[in-house]
Amino acid sequence: MTWFRRLINLARPNQLARDIDREMAFHIAERAEELRRAGMPEGDALLEARRRFGNRTLLSERTRDADVVTWLDSVLGDLRYAVRGMRRSPGFVLVAVGSLALGIGATSAMLSVAMGALLGSVPFPDPDRLVHVWERPETPATPQNPAARAPASYPELLDWRDGSRVFVALEGYDETNVTLSNLGEPVRLQGARVTAGFLAMLGVRPVLGRGLARGDDGPGSAPVAVVSHGFWRRRLGGDPAAIGRTLTIDGRAVTVVGVLPRDFLFAPAGDVEVLLPVDAAAARTSGRSSRWMRVVGRLRDGVSVDRASADLAAIMRRLAAQYPETNAGRAAYAVSLREEIVGPVRPLLLALGGAVGLMLLVACTNVASLFLARAIARGREFAVRAAIGAGRGRIVRQLLAESVLVAAVGGAAGAALAWAGVAWLATLPLHVADRMPFLRGLTVDAGVLGATMAVALGTGVAFGMTPALHAGRLSLALLGRRDGVDGRGTPGGRAWRALIAAQIAFTTVLLVGAGLMARSLTALLRVDLGFETGRVVTMRLALAGSRYEPPAAQQRFFETLVARARALPGARAAGAVSNVPLAGGGSTTLHVDGVPEPRAAARPEAMLRGVAGDYFRAMGIRLVEGRALGPRDDSAAVPAIVVSEGLARRLFGPGPAVGRRVRFYASPATAWTVVGVVADVRAASLDAPAPPIIYRSHLQAPENRMTVVVRAAGDPSALLTAMRREMRTLDPLLPVYEVGTMAERVASAPAVYLRRYLLALLGGFALVATLLAAFGLYGVIAYAVARRAREMGIRAALGATPRSIVMLVLRQGATLAAFGFAAGLAASGALGRVLGTLLYGVRATDQLTYGAVAALLAGVTLLASLVPARRAARVDPAEVLRAE
Amino acid sequence: MTVAKTRNDILQGTLALLVLRTLAASGPMHGYAITSHIHRVSGELLRVEEGSLYPALHRMEQDGWLRASWGRTETDREARFYEVTAKGRRQLAIERESWARLTEGVGRVLGYA
User: Fold this and answer.
1) At what angle do helices A847-873 and A802-828 cross, to 10 degrees?
2) For the segment A353-403, what is each residue's pLDDT rounded down to a tens digit?
3) What angle do CA A195, A196, A201 make, to 5 degrees?
4) Measured between CA atoms, how close is B12 to chain A, in angstroms?
5) Chain B environment of A1 (Cβ under 8 Å)
6) What are phi and psi of B41, to 5 degrees?
7) Which domain holds residue B53?
8) Does B79 touch chain A if contact means CB atoms closer than 8 Å?
9) C-alpha to C-alpha distance for A217 and A224, rounded to whole angstroms
10) Domain ranges in chain A?
11) What is the largest CA-CA distance in chain B?
């Protein structure tokens, strides 16, 4: 009860003070009254009464202390004092809180993403038993296939299943796009064809219905599909009776038999909406060299990935002996599924992780130096406090209150920033995020946030306490001097300078990183793509359904479409291609007529493309030799091909390519004649060298999926609208997709986008770090100058010119910055390893970048030191000497 | 009390004893009346410093030995009156006993030849 009263009294200090005052006033009045009655005159009586009463203020306070929870009250007092102090120096608070928020926020967001990537990327039971299997021709990695891996064929999958003893299960998948046409407007769906046991192997249990079963891929079985949770919610309305409903997929009626769980995520296949069974019969007969299937397996307990690879290699050797035509020189190997998914992202994650790590260091250093600077500036205040009797503990408590206050605000801001950061990171453009589906629904990891906060706040609080260390060492004698504390020999001064130098070092690393990224990006964007991007629009269609089953129908459709597109006003040239540049694709082996056949392992490979209309002109691909393909290359004419320049050099040497003949191992009966050579195109990816490509007219090799390419004379978007209209008149039931310009495609290609992303982050961090370092530098130099004001005055009195004084100060700043820069340069050497493949066209020790960073830092140092330097030069020697 | 400048537990406990006894015997009083009473009844041997009195009164109130309320004096002035509680009376008995023991002990030591 009494404790309660005491707590309440904390909240009504004024009332309490008034009560006590009244009580005491009464006492004094009574005493005065008594004295008057004893004969003392009125004024004297009151005076005497007051004197006898004693120190009213002190008494009031002591009385009050009995009535409140004293320690809590004094803590609140400390906090109130701290808040007042903060209000007086808003700059300090702003920068300190800002640094903390940035450091905590950025680091927590980034590490949360990294943890999501590493942990969440394979959300299946026993994920480390899952491996991805790739094939590899026995030749060493070729430029067009740096990873030297290829999909397998269905018969090979069956052979592996039969022959291997280390796998519990081996299943295959293939990404595909299908058309859904019975739920409103026809749309393209992202999907995958999988073998029957795929879901069972992964350990996925559908939330509704069943997964795919053994019989679903048989020749006579009814077509079925399993849909994703998102699809079920969005397009089937979350209908609990969705099982049994029919979808029209690619023109055929398919029954829904299952719904996948919400957290299903098979990253290699992207964000699939529908899973369809592989047509086993068709796959079996497609032949051993038709390699389109990607294979995933589950290892038996205790089997290592290496052992699995060795096992597969043995099987492949047997197959090479058995089927030399298709399997000579091919090997296979396994790689952990987690590695497969995370591997490509790792350089980016490392780079980003490094960047935020540096950012955290900069933030901590900045906060530390801010507190240290403040401590040094308040050295006098704490000396006075100590002199009038404040114990160490009391001073420490006061400082703790201040540090905790700043830390609390900074921590809260940091947490908010972390949430925002994760939300932003999760909004990568769809096709980039497609490969990183673990970004979906990512939130800040509590553990990461806690750890980062602990680091940052710990630094703040630790450095906030530094004045307490000095309070003991400061003597009253020091107080007597006007300076208070000597700038050079200050206990904190050296530490402060070291912190600033460290900050400059970290800033250097960030700047170098940003510079290297900028150069990589510009180098990448200047790459000769081999095709034009300005004003080239694309639109993709996939023909499906019985209407387009006959190849002749497909050819007729595309011919018509291209002709209509060409006829549109605003179209300069129109064509179509099976896969636009940067869309990747598989490759096939070929053999040149009249040349001795090389070993199976050394067979030349090329990517195949089907073209229609005036594709090369529309895409701006230069014709080097011969002619382009045209309408006369139809089924009645000689089979004709156009090859890419690099391939032509490789196959035919310096001599003419036109007229030479080529056969494909997949269909060796037909001889294809080269009629033209075109420039190389970056068909696979911007930062990989141009692969060899062979173009065939779709009239001779029908395609059921093509992208229409049109070069616009004027506004591309108007042309796109017109093209859509044409499509609708031709066939309103066919959905169009991947509509846009080639310029957009290039800009959002992962090679470009990832680097731009990284550049934005690194650049932003580097900018903030530079600003912070500049302020820190300014602070430390300004303080040094202020402390050495007397010295400056003496120098001026002895004849030093203002200029020489300015140079003196500038030299101080330059020395400090030079130390920091040198340390930063040394650390930048490791950037090469961290950035790795992200660097393009530039070495990690690029001199231009280093030079630019040095110049920037020199400029910043100059600016930061200039103001204090000018102030030093303006010191009036007479005034300074007089004041001593 | 005017002689002893030092604050120690014995003196503080004595003050509590005196205040409790005063209030128990004479009913509710305000602070000034308490000092007057002690001063008079002790034959002017004891004078309570205001500096000690009010903090002590408030402390005793927090401890629950006294109850305080605002009231009016005979001269119709507003003053804070204190009265002893049941807990206070129990405390008074304890204080009396320890005082008796103290004086007995001191007396024996002083009387030792």
Assistant:
1) 150
2) 888 888 888 888 888 888 877 777 777 777 777 777 777 777 778 888 888
3) 90
4) 14
5) 64
6) -65, -30
7) 9-111
8) yes
9) 9
10) 2-68, 70-124+345-485, 139-328, 490-527+744-884, 545-733
11) 57
Residue type, A498: A
Say whether A26 and B55 touch across the interface (CB within 8 A). no
Q: Determine, yes or no, domain membership for B2.
A: no
CB contact under 8 A, A26 and B30: yes
CB contact under 8 A, B58 and A31: no
Rounded CA-CA distance A627/A695 in Å is 12
Contact B38, B83 (CB under 8 A): no
CA distance A105 to A546: 56
CA distance A36 to chain B (A): 16
Q: How many CB pairs under 8 A join A and B?
A: 56
Assess B71–A contact: CB distance below 8 Å, yes or no.
Answer: no
In a domain, B4, yes or no: no
pTM: 0.68
Compute the distance between CA of residue A664 and CA of residue A671 in angstroms, rounded to an integer: 8
User: Is any Cβ of chain B less than 8 angstroms from the Cβ of A48?
Assistant: no
Position B3 in a domain: no
Asked if B50 lies within 8 A of A19 by C-beta distance, the reply is no
Count how many residues are written for chain B: 113
Would you call B2 an interface residue with chain A, using a CB distance cutoff of 8 Å? no
Q: Which is nearest to A503 in space by CA: A359, A365, A357?
A: A365
Q: Are A834 and A751 spatial neighbours (Cβ–Cβ below 8 Å)? A: no
Tokens 């086993």 -> residue? A280
Tell me the CATH number at B80: 1.10.10.10
Which chain A residues contact residue B2 at CB under 8 A? none
Question: How many folded domains does chain B comprise?
Answer: 1
CB neighbours of residue B75 within 10 Å: 9
Q: Which of A390, A487, A509, A500 is nearest to A788 (CA)?
A: A487
ipTM of the complex model: 0.81
List, for residues A255-304, the tens digit of each pLDDT value: 999 999 887 878 787 778 899 998 877 777 777 777 788 999 999 988 89
DSSP A656: -
Select the residue from B40, B49, B57, B58 to test the A interface by mutation, using most A Cβ atoms within 10 A. B58
Q: How far apart are CA A347 and CA A338, in angstroms?
A: 15
Rounded Cα distance, A734 and A732, in Å: 6
A317 touches chain B (CB under 8 A): no
Nearest CA to CA, how far is A401 from chain B (Å)? 29
Q: Which residues of A touch B1 (CB under 8 A)?
A: none
